[in-house]
Specification:
seven-stranded mixed β-sheet; binds xanthosine-5'-monophosphate; globular; alpha/beta; Rossmann fold; 489 residues; 31% helix
Length: 489
């Protein structure tokens, strides 16, 4: 919706209807979600919303909820659809009006609507969803089983635009400048004249968060860069260099690799790794903050997808992103998260508007827990060394091929418990495989594996095997998200 330049807010479904309507929404969208309408305690909404004279669009679970609450039927048909799906239109429709008869959409559902409520028409279907879209024009209630909000739904944005402009009568007047002004005002209101520290990772999120806070409070900001020992080849030096060139605030560089690696010895379980890393981060920050007078606030570049996937609201915990779910309860900071309601594409646009350099704004995302979630199994210095070298080759070749910017993320993964047999020279080898992962995505909520050219894959594979001691095989991961996630852990 914001891409269509329409202001939108995300509110919990439990917000009393009167409060929701007091915001005078021109339309209400019910999001998707992982539950089934049939389970006890399934997320629901006050049915009075259907009589509020406000247009409604339900997406995925939201569409099923509409069908169920208004007297239709939702069943577990056993024919769930996950990922790319063919959608066929089945009649005239307001929200699908600009779409062709057939197209590709992104689905992620187990249950399906089997009977529509009275007054509704079926406007599209797919192999696993007899009702892939439904609408009741008179009441202005619409539902789509597919996800119009993800980039892999070819014409998804057109569906949202039709709802916003043709059904809700919205006008496209919301811009990034509004977002910046609002964020700056909110930061000032939250922190007053207190000291604030900001963890920089070198990625776009923390850089934009820092730039926003800097704009809001100037010199009251101190930036801290923690070298966890889980960074990529040359990354610490690069971050320091870029930072010094770009920002004019104090940067404290903490070299804490030994501490992180000691805390992670023999830890294999992914969630435990994240918790340990999150906790260690906070303790390091607390120590730094003790030396800075009145630093009671910590800036985090948390984005909305991090919150969604860490189980905010009704959402299932997919993984604890260390800057959200992995933080200890007893920390001495209040968090400042100026990006917590926005998505990566908006962060990049804001970064550009704030004048950050291209190598920061267009850097591929890198997870807070770093290489720890790309070594499957325990973290050791040897494994880090192998992964770093392999990862460096992947990124270097992707850059050389001119694909760095269009690919969302490209990296190597080391499944350290596996050994494979190979032959090099005339001898048998028994070494590590490395997995190459490259995905396209718009916001990390969904992703597809990148169709890298074969000759590029070949160059990456042969360079890794020739140049990285301890690796004798390279595999390419062709899993989309869902059902996979982008990272392996
Ligand atoms: P997944 O693997 O969940 O990743 O599909 C979605 C995006 O988030 C990044 N990621 C993280 N970022 N802390 C972060 O700051 C984390 O714990 C974390 N885990 C995953 C991942 O690289 C991808 O861009």
């Amino acid at each position: 919706m914001r891409e269509a330049r329409v202001y939108s807010e995300i509110v919990p479904r439990t917000m009393p209807l009167a409060e929701m309507l007091a915001k005078r929404p021109k339309g209400i969208i019910f999001s998707g979600g992982p539950a089934s309408v049939h389970v006890d305690g399934a997320p629901s909404i006050d049915p009075a919303v259907y009589d509020a004279d406000t247009p409604i669009l339900g997406i995925c679970y939201g569409a099923q909820l509409i069908a169920q609450q208004l007297g239709g039927e939702v069943r577990e048909t056993g024919g769930g659809e996950y990922g790319r799906t063919q959608l066929s239109r089945t009649g005239s429709s307001v929200v699908l009006s600009s779409l062709p008869e057939e197209q590709q959409v992104w689905m992620s559902h187990g249950d399906a609507i089997t009977t529509v409520p009275e007054g509704f028409m079926i406007t599209a279907s797919s192999p696993g969803a007899p009702v892939a879209a439904l609408e009741d024009r008179d009441r202005a209630i619409y539902g789509v089983q597919f996800h119009p909000e993800v980039v892999h739904t070819e014409r998804g944005q057109d569906v949202l635009r039709a709802f916003l402009f043709d059904v809700c009568d919205c006008r496209p007047t919301w811009t990034n400048t509004n977002i910046i002004e609002e964020a700056v005002a909110e930061i000032r209101a939250q922190v007053g004249t207190a000291g604030v520290i900001c963890g920089l990772s070198g990625g776009v999120d923390s850089a934009v968060a820092a730039a926003l806070v800097h704009r809001a409070i100037g010199d009251h900001l101190t930036c801290v860069f923690v070298d966890t020992g889980l960074l990529r080849l040359g990354e610490a030096e690069q971050v320091e260099e870029t930072f010094n060139r770009q920002f004019h605030v104090e940067l404290i560089h903490v070299k804490a690799a030994d501490r992180f690696l000691a805390a992670l010895v023999d830890v294999e379980e992914p969630e435990t790794k994240r918790k340990i890393i999150g906790e260690t981060f906070i303790r390091v920050f607390e120590e730094v903050a003790r030396d800075i007078s009145s630093a009671g606030f910590l800036v985090q570049g948390t984005l909305y997808p991090d919150i969604v996937e860490s189980g905010g609201g009704d959402n299932a915990v997919i993984k604890s992103h260390h800057n959200v779910g992995g933080l200890p309860d007893d920390m001495d900071f209040e968090l400042v998260e100026p990006l917590r309601n926005i998505f990566k594409d908006e962060v990049r646009a804001i970064g550009e508007e704030l004048g950050l350099p291209e190598d920061i704004v267009w850097r591929q995302p890198f997870p807070g827990p770093g290489l720890a979630v790309r070594i499957i199994g325990a973290i050791t210095p040897d494994r880090l060394e192998i992964l770093r070298a392999a990862d460096h080759i992947v990124v270097e070749e992707i850059r050389r091929a001119g694909l760095y910017r269009e690919i969302w993320q490209s990296f190597a993964v080391l499944p350290s418990a596996v050994r494979t047999v190979g032959v090099m020279g005339d001898g048998r080898t028994y070494e590590n495989p490395v997995i190459v992962r490259a995905v396209t995505s718009e916001d990390a909520m969904t992703a597809d594996w990148a169709r890298l050219p074969y000759d590029l894959l070949e160059r990456i594979a042969s360079r890794i095997i020739n140049e990285v001691a301890g690796v004798n095989r390279v595999a390419y991961d062709i899993t989309s998200k869902p059902p996979g996630t982008i990272e392996w852990e």
